[in-house]
Every structure is written in structure tokens, then in C-alpha cells.
Amino acid sequence: MTKRTRIFMTGSGAVLAAGLCTGLVAYYGGGFQALVASTGPTELSYVPADASIVAYADVRSIMDSELRQRFKQAMPMNEEGQREFFEHTGINLEQDVDYVVAAATANGFGKNGVLVARGRFDIVKLEGLAREHGAEVQEYSGKRLLVLKHEGWHHDVEKNAEEAAEKAVEKAEAPAGSGGLAAVSAGVPNTGAVAFLEPGLVAIGDLAGVKRAIDAHDHAQSITSNNEMMDLVKDIERTNNAWAVGRFDLIASQAKLPENIARQIPPVKWFAAAGHINGGVSAQLRAEANDDKAAENLRGVINGVISLARLQGQNDPKLAPLISSLQMSGSGKTVELSFTIPSEIFELMAPKIKGEHRVH
Amino acid sequence: MTTVETPARRPPAFLTSSLRIFDLSVGEMLWSRRTIFMALVVGAPVAIALLIRVLVGLGAPIFTEGGPRSNSPIHMTGPAIFGLVIWVMYLRFIVPVLGVFYGTSLIADEVEDKTITYLFTRPISRGAVLAGKYLAYLACTVFVVLPSVVLVYLMIVPLRGSLGASFPDLLKDLLLLTLGLAVYGAVFAFVGAAFKRPLLIGLVFVFGWEQAVMVFPGYLRKFTVAFYLQGIVPHAMPSEGVVSLFQGLFRETPSLLTSLVSLAVIWGIFLAWGARIVARKEYVLEQ
């Protein structure tokens, strides 16, 4: 072997080794992006670690988006309603909310659900409005809470409890105790709460959910400690102004779907949906299947659907940009579908929606 | 006066002979005119990756906005583009083409240059000549292709992606491409040893037979190398183009074990068969 052959081989091996070492360091160190950017909004620290779904929307950029402006021109909004809302709450939805983070556990959005909003809020006005509607002021872990009880609360609770008890009697074959559980769960008061977490940061949701959000932040037991979910968030949050990540299996199991439909649902553990809204909408849907085989099957199904859509949509120039943008990717357990909805499609939809509004 | 009988020199073992031929051939192969072709072929994905990287660095709206009004041509993530490059450029083009061009030339070039006589008159087994040249081919291609894959990975994957998250896929890709080069090389080494116009046969096999058979459902695709290689690709199959559409529709993926075993069998059979042909065939050098 000549000297220059040896030099070439050494250089080539060095490039290979350097690349592999870089990848290895990134793999064990959590990726180089992590060194320069934090994952997700800081408000994720208010999302409990056991949340089964987390969603984020950059309200500011969506409100300012070209698409929204076009919609606004095509379908003028009810400005009267917006003004009334502003007069009552002091919140201008167009300008005062920067972004929101929402989360819920598998129990459902109604219970333990919370929405954290960052923006400019007139606390005095909000508190006054809440008090007018019978809200009570409470303190929880040093945070000021406005607890709002539903007007027909006592009546609703009694009615729900009666209905649940009747259903429990009817379902005699149901496991022992399930009727009682349903009755108890129906009897839990649906108490809303608003918490002023920090200047410019409010949490809105069920009282239990808001309290859990405060606990998650105070005890550092937030979703940021859930590596699986944060990996998904990290992948999608940088380039999208709206996203949601969640445990598909938990949500599907709580959805109480008919058995024949539930059987058809692919074995997916995690899902992520993200979109960037500006001129149009570019979106990504991602699923993390339980195993490689399930992912491969899902990829096959999606590829087949895309192929058929392309064959079908070749003659429709309106749908052509959408169909040509469909792109399936992913490896291992990951299945990802990305697509772009051009603003032209929304423009086509706008007159129809406008027409429906007029009919109503 | 006594005569000292010198013991008869035993020919070197098969492995030693192969390594001797490897040592002789690797430099020749690496600094031949074919290397220019290989550099162009392998350099193309690196150049494309570099171009994308430079454009992104200069602020071109390639990845930033997905909206159609933003004139953004790419709506994919870096890892997805990397997967696409592996499929379309490396697996479907570079690996088979390098296999054809180098594999078929291992013996055919020596015959054409009329230098095979010099190798065959050496006290080494003829099979070792093919084995040594095959090792040289593998070293040349692996040491050129794999670094280029690594460079593409380093440039493309960080765009809307994570180097760490894609690292397992990179390892699978490197292994897969090495396997591909090894198996295609073995097949075309056999073709080069057995047939008179090996390059033509190789090109027909890669761009005719393999492409055509993969489009249609049925068992014929089992007589290709691509079928088993595609079974171990960690990335999703691209769905661009009519051929890809049909391949996606009728895609049948063998299991990992089936793929690995089949590739090993193909490799073993064709390399052994090629060595056997070289050992037995009488090459007639055209005057």
C-alpha cells in the first residue's frame, strides 16, 4: 500500500470517526440543539408530570398571520362582541394574549384540565368581574385564586348524582362499585378557577387542575421531567406556532369508543400534531407506535392512502398543491405525515362558511 | 561433497494470498480513473447538503415558513431529508452503481489489459486473486461512501432535527450501505468473472431487472438484492414519482432476519461461485 493510499484511508477513517463521535455525543448528551435552546415555553413547568396531552398556541403570531388577516377580510368578525368582552374583562383578544399552554390528564379536559395564558391582563378588572359572578377569593401556595362555582351547581350535582345512580342500577352486569364510582364522579362539583401565577401569567381551568398546576411548578414535578414527551415537544416546537403532544393510548382508552372502532385503532403510544400558520398552514402529524412492526404497517397504510390521493387528485387543480405536499416520513417506531394547506383552499372555503353564517 | 536439499517452497495460504493481492490492488483501484467517477457520484449528495446548508445559513426561507406564499420549497425536517437522500441517492443509485462499475471490473479489467497472466503465474490460488481484489473494492468504496454519508448527516440532520435522535438511524444506514456494497460487489464480481460483457449485464440488472420487478407484486422481487436491502432501511420509503408510488403500493417488506440471512446467502454464494469460476475458467486474451 502506497503512502498516499494510507493517508487517504486515514483521512477517510478520521472523517468517519469524527462524525460517529459527534453523533454519539449528541445521542447521549440529548442533542446539540439542547445546548443552545430550551425545550418549549417556560410555562410547561406548570403542566403536571402525568398530563396525557399538552398543547401550545402562539396566539400572537396566529392573530398576526396572513391567513387570519385574509379570513378577517373575507368574513368580518363580530366586533361588537369583541368590544363587549374587552369592556367586561379588559382583555383585547387581538393584542393582549401572547401564547397559551393547555394540558389535561387522561381523566378528561373537564377535570384536571388547565390553560396557562401569557399576556397582558387587567387583574383588578378580572377580579371585579369574577366577584360580580359570585367568585370567592382563595389563597393556594401563595397564589391568588378566584374560585367560580357554577350557578346551578347544587341542582346539577344532585341531578347528576341521581342520573348516575339510576345508570348504575340499570347496569347490573357492571363490575361492583363502578356505579358508585360513576355517581361519585358525577357528584364532583365542576368548579372553575382563575389563578394569577405571575405578573402576566394566568391559569384557567378546573379548581383541581389549577391547584395541580401550581403544585407541579412549586414541587418541580412538571411535564419537563417527562423525557419521552419532552423529546416530542423538542422536535416540533421550534418551527411551529401551534402544537399538541399526547399519549394516544391513554386518550383512546378514555374515549369510550365502540369496540369495533377501538379494534381498528393502530397501536400508537404517542402522537404529536404541529402546525405553522402564516400564509397557509403547514402541518405535521407524528405518531410513535408501540413497536417497529406497527409503525411499518401504519406507514404502509398512509403511503397507500397518499398514493391513492395522488392518483385521484391529479385532475383537480384546486387540491393539487395540498396533495402534492403530502409527505410521509419516519423511521423505527416513528410515523410522520407532513402537508401544506395553501391559503387558496381556505379562500375557497370562506364563501361557503360565510353563506352558512348568513343562512343561520 | 554433500548436496543440501532445499525444501520446496509451499504456496502461501488463501488468506495470506488474498491480503497480498488486496495490498497490491487497493492503491491501483483507488487512484484509477474510476475514482474520479466515484468522487463525482459520492460527492453529489455532499454538494447538495452543503448547498442547502449554505442557503439556510444565508437566511434563505427553505425551512422557516411552510406556507405556500412564503415560497418555501421544502416542508420537511432535516432527518426526513437525510432519509430521502439515503433512499434515493445512496441505496437506489450510488451503491448499485459502484457495485456494478467496480465489481465487474475486478477480473474483467485484468483480462482486458492482458495482465491477468501475471497474477495467475504467481504461486497463489486463483480464487485468492478474486478475493483480494474484492477486499480492495470493499475498502475503496466503504472508505469513500461512508464518510460522505457522515458529512451529509452532519450537514442536513440538524436542520429542524436532532443529531442525537437520528444517530441510531445513521448507524443502521452505515451498516446497511456497507452490506449493500458487499453484496452488490459479490454479485458483480461473479458477473465480471463469468460473462464477457459484464458492465452491460450489470447495468441491465440494476436499472432494468431490479427496478421493473420491484414495481410489480409477486415472488420475482425475491431475486433481487434491493428487495432485501430495502427491508432493513430505517427510513420511510419516499413516495415521489410514479415508480415509487407503485413500489409503495405493492411494497412487501421482508423481516430483518430474512433480509440479513438472504443477503448473507447471496453474498456467500456469488463470491464463492465467482472464485470458483476464476479458478477454473481459461481466459483467452484477445490479441
Describe the structure.
The complex is a heterodimer of chains A (360) and B (287). Chain A is an alpha+beta fold and 360 residues long. A 12-stranded antiparallel sheet of chain A has the order 4-5-6-7-3-2-1-8-9-10-12-11, with helices on both faces. In chain A, helix 4 (66-74) packs parallel to helix 15 (343-359) and helix 7 packs antiparallel against helix 8 (178-187). Helices cover 49% and strands 22% of the residues of chain A. Chain A has 15 helices and 12 strands. With 287 residues, chain B is mainly α. Chain B is built from 11 helices and no strands. In chain B, helix 7 (163-194) runs parallel beside helix 11. The model of chain B is unreliable at 64-74 (pLDDT under 50).
Q: Categorize the overall geometry of chain B.
A: globular
Largest interface: A-B, 66 and 53 residues
Roughly what percent helix of chain B?
A: 55-70%
Structural class by SSE content of chain B = mainly alpha
Report the mean per-residue pLDDT of chain B as an integer: 80
